[in-house]
Specification:
The protein is an alpha/beta fold and 264 residues long. Helix content is 27%, strand content 27%. Strand 6, helix 4 and strand 7 form a beta-alpha-beta unit. The chain starts with a helix and ends in a 5-residue tail after the last strand.
């Protein structure tokens, strides 16, 4: 029994609430739990894969989701790619902000898409497409210069997909962005200084920003645009962007920082 399995077998570690749906596929269990305020998607009954406020489905709940959405302060998207669906926090918020924004949403597990459609108010429309395919396969074959923003939030029950640390993945994402586009990545911790991940990011992108959220997650914003906006001005724009999502980003904007980009 793994540490996660052992912990999830003890009721004190389990997410509290009523089970409203449960299914499984070859990757494991998929469970929907709800209480008076929230509906939660979980793969192990212990970690929240996604969380939706029932009376305001489009409101971003987790701080790392808010941090990812701050990317609209850098580039307001006409077309976005979302890698990793979960319960659909990102597409719900983006569609609520701009109903005309076209989206490709990639999720490896068809069962997750089905559960999210049934229980998490996913946006639908001719300009919104859900793809049940491996993220690496999708982005490797995507057209060049296609997306304004790419959001990558690839996680299993309690671990990040190693794909997000691979330079080939970053290279494919770079190729798929428009010239002024941004790649937005959610990492469980800050990349080590001079470590392989940071070096790969620096080789692929000329501009890197970061936001460290209270949970310890670090959201990286990567682009090849020349970033000469004063940080305080970016923070002001990000606060205004929070209003567009019906929430307050002011606790996160002071955490925005500039990292070095591509090395000579």
């Amino acid at each position: 029994m793994t540490d996660v399995e052992q912990a999830s077998s003890v009721s004190i570690f389990r997410i509290r609430g009523d089970i409203v749906a449960s299914t499984h596929d070859e990757h494991g269990q998929i469970t929907v739990i709800e209480n008076k305020i929230y509906r939660i998607l979980t793969f192990d009954r212990m970690c929240e894969q996604s969380k939706m406020q029932k009376n305001e489905p489009a409101l971003p709940v987790h701080n790392y989701i808010r941090a990812m959405l701050m990317a609209v302060a850098l580039k307001s998207p006409q077309k976005a790619l979302i890698l990793g669906l979960g319960g659909g926090c990102l597409p719900r918020a983006i569609a609520a902000r701009d109903a005309a924004c076209a989206m490709d949403i990639v999720e490896l597990r068809p069962a997750v898409i089905d559960v999210a459609r049934r229980h998490f108010s996913l946006p639908e429309g001719e300009h919104i497409h859900y793809h049940a395919v491996d993220a690496d396969q999708f982005i490797a074959s995507a057209e060049e210069h296609r997306y304004d923003l790419i959001f990558s939030d690839l996680y299993a029950a309690d671990t990040m997909s190693p794909l997000q640390e691979m330079e080939t993945f970053l290279q494919h994402a770079n190729r798929t962005l428009k010239a002024d586009g941004w790649l937005v990545l959610n990492y469980p911790q800050r990349p080590a200084a001079n470590g392989p991940l940071l070096q790969a990011l620096q080789r692929q992108f000329s501009t890197l920003l970061r936001c460290v959220v209270p949970s310890g997650n670090v959201v990286i914003y990567a682009s090849n645009v020349t970033f000469d906006l004063p940080l305080r001005e970016l923070q002001r724009i990000a606060i205004r962007a929070g209003n567009e999502f019906g929430t307050d980003f002011s606790s996160l904007t002071p955490k925005l920082a500039v990292l070095s980009g591509r090395q000579p």
